[in-house]
Amino acid sequence: MNGEIEKFSRELPKIELHAHLNGSLNPITLQHLVDRKKEKKPHLTNFKIPNQKLEIIDDFFKYFKFIYQLTDDEETVAYITETVILDFHSDGIKYLELRTTPRSNEENGMTHESYIRTVISVIKKFPSSKHDIIVRLIVSINRQSTLEDAIKIVDLALKYKETGVVGVDLCGDPSRGHFDNLKPAFIKAKDNGLKVTLHFGEVESIIPEHASMLTIPPDRIGHATYLDPNSKRYILFNKLPIEMCMTSNVMCNTVKDYQEHHIKDFLYAGHPCCLCTDDKGIFFSNLSTEYSIAASTFSLSYQQLFDLSYQCIDCIFDGDEVKIHLRKLWNDWWELCKPTLNTLNMKEGNI
Ligand SMILES: CNc1ncnc2c1ncn2[C@@H]1O[C@H](COP(=O)(O)O)[C@@H](O)[C@H]1O
């Protein structure tokens, strides 16, 4: 990879809109958690995430059986939230929408509500004025939830709407559950002013759920790898922003390689695409690497990389005031940075 582009991608102000808390733990944090818990849970002693491409996406979801045992109390949830925010901060992320699925643990008194409260209490420690990063929360609902639980989670998201929750997400193993079972929960979220993002088209077998999902309608979708013609038309016509997770898709083998990634078609069409990490801890990536990969795969120029990052501002779930703040930040950075760039890479790239 071109070293100059890597440096540029690191320094570029960036927005992360699709990052699962428990999938974003760096290897050092994970090892630290293993060390802390191994006395009580000796079967986790040798747990490590292998840095290799998976054969099928089903294998990916198995990791959470282990990770969840490491993050099953409020103290640890607070610790990982802080670590993950600091990691994103040091990678040049200026606005982060972190997402997580509330969990409970009867043994130590953690409830869905105390889980959310814990995450929010850490987010509050990062006021933008002090820390140079704005953090918001998306509350995830797993596809395997019951409708009753999903509604409870939406109610909690609404309860904490004024303290940093901006939206809800549908996530989880796409081969489990069905969107229609949970649809009323998403309608409730939307009706009450929360934004909605849905994992969409991550695998081909999910296509029959698409038409129903689009009726919500979502404010963004994640992945959009496998699309039927009607959904694709809807997404393009409505300029529905897509959270693009290139390394995640390649590592889970839902996309053959970077060159074949569907982001290419959407970029050609001038469609709003937001590069995201998904689960940077499991895929050994970070957001600046995703920008470098996009640049080297599709020969993007500095200007195109900057534009790619800039247009994410329009796709955030927070309101106009934050958007205006971010636009100024981006423009000021670009004015300072532009004169120092190698003019060769300023020329238009392939897209
Ligand atoms: C590969 N792409 C993906 N597709 C679907 N769901 C995913 C995912 N990556 C992560 N998750 C969902 O996020 C949870 C972990 O973070 P939190 O416990 O919420 O912080 C996983 O259990 C899974 O449901």
UniProtKB/TrEMBL annotation:
Species name: Diversispora epigaea
Q: Which cofactor does it need?
A: Zn(2+)
Q: Which reaction does it catalyse?
A: N(6)-methyl-AMP + H2O + H(+) = IMP + methylamine
Q: Which residues form a coiled coil?
A: none
Q: Name one GO biological process term.
A: nucleotide metabolic process
User: Recorded GO terms, molecular function?
Assistant: adenosine deaminase activity; metal ion binding
Q: In which family does this protein belong, per the annotation? A: Belongs to the metallo-dependent hydrolases superfamily. Adenosine and AMP deaminases family.
InterPro entries under this entry?
A_deaminase_dom (IPR001365), Ado/ade_deaminase (IPR006330), Metal_Hydrolase (IPR032466)
Which domain of life does this protein belong to? Eukaryota
Keywords assigned by UniProt, alphabetized: Hydrolase, Metal-binding, Nucleotide metabolism, Zinc
Q: Which residues form the Adenosine deaminase domain?
A: 13-327
List the Pfam families hit by this protein, alphabetically. Answer: A_deaminase (PF00962)
* Name of the molecule in the record: Adenosine deaminase domain-containing protein
What is said about its interaction partners and assembly?
A: Monomer.
